[in-house]
Write a structure and sequence with these properties.
2 copies of one chain form a homodimer.
Chain A (H helix, E strand, L loop, with lengths): L3 E7 L4 E10 L8 E6 L9 E8 L8 H10 L10 E9 L1 H5 L2 H11 L2 H7 L5 E6 L9 E7 L4 H12 L7 E11 L5
Antiparallel strand pairs in A: 1-3, 1-4, 2-3, 2-8, 5-7, 5-8, 6-7
Chain lengths: 186, 186
């Protein structure tokens, strides 16, 4: 199983871009479609306005009870009913990365309740986290979410709650891309 | 500052290979010299028998008191007197990576005292940790150490103490490469 993913914004792909909002820092060029490629890094194809690369990795903050609770509740990606998606690339500040592990964990969970908040929206919202800071990408994380249309408001609530946490004081760039699948998802 | 490093084993480079021992799992082909290249990944040059790639990253386990104590005591690399070095590539088991963050931390430090043991050998032994599991390399970590010849025995003690810890139960591949710098280090 290859842990590398490329997100290509351009004119192709099964995801239609419904909205693309730069929330903090530099935005991203508006595009019509998004394509996701797993495996070998996608070249900056002439058709793509931008390519974002990330990789899945081991758990970095979650404790055993949190991992178990997540595994029990979190759904798989590509559910037929999950025709809505969001790609939210985030970059955190140098100050965040200079913190020690216990300091980052304390802000992430004990103060900001990141996992606990996310847990409230399971199994409605499926997600996958891609890391990209270490591979020289412009963002630190590419977070990918999938949900059914009727859970759009719940997803907005989830983001609203996370964005007012202390953890978000360390977010210096954030783009919010909303997507709709153009075909039946089988 | 580029966080990518390539270690090329072959016939070139300022580090003469004094010993190359496969300790667990598959070894590495014996070579005469080692060269370290920072920046763009080195190609698998025809002259190199093997190329190992890794990148530096943020702290993953250390707490604030540990980070502060390390920063206060740890020396820089490339000290003129540090004519000896070791490259120790390590791969941990799938079981290790499936652990939650608190479980890995507990084994790493509260049980195995990895940082505390390392601290006892500062400032004699300088080190840099390179991560490589997420980028599809054969090892998870490439650990690089530099020390003066008179601290060789201390360095052996350090390794002896780490290799009997519970953390090492999760090490499934380890190669130990000892090196000597062939020129004055200026």
């Amino acid at each position: 199983m290859d842990n590398r993913y490329s997100f290509l914004g351009g004119k192709r792909g099964p995801w239609r871009v419904a909205r693309l909002d730069g929330l903090r820092g530099a935005g991203l060029e508006a595009v019509e479609r998004l394509q996701i490629v797993q495996g070998e890094w996608a070249e900056s194809a002439s058709e793509a306005a931008w390519v974002l690369r990330g990789l899945t990795s081991n758990v970095r903050y979650a404790t055993r009870p949190e991992v178990d609770a997540l595994r029990e509740r979190q759904p798989a990606l590509a559910r037929p009913e999950a025709r809505c998606a969001a790609l939210i690339p985030i970059k955190k500040s140098a100050r965040w990365w200079e913190l020690a592990q216990d300091e980052r964990r304390a802000i992430f969970e004990e103060t900001s309740h990141h996992t606990a908040i996310g847990m409230e929206f399971l199994p409605a919202v499926a997600r996958r986290l891609h890391h990209c800071r270490d591979i020289g990408e412009p963002f630190d994380f590419l977070t990918w979410f999938e949900y059914a249309p009727e859970h759009t408001h719940a997803f907005e609530d989830l983001l609203d709650r996370l964005r007012v946490t202390r953890e978000w004081d360390f977010v210096e760039r954030e783009v919010d891309i909303r997507l709709e699948h153009i075909d039946a998802r089988i």
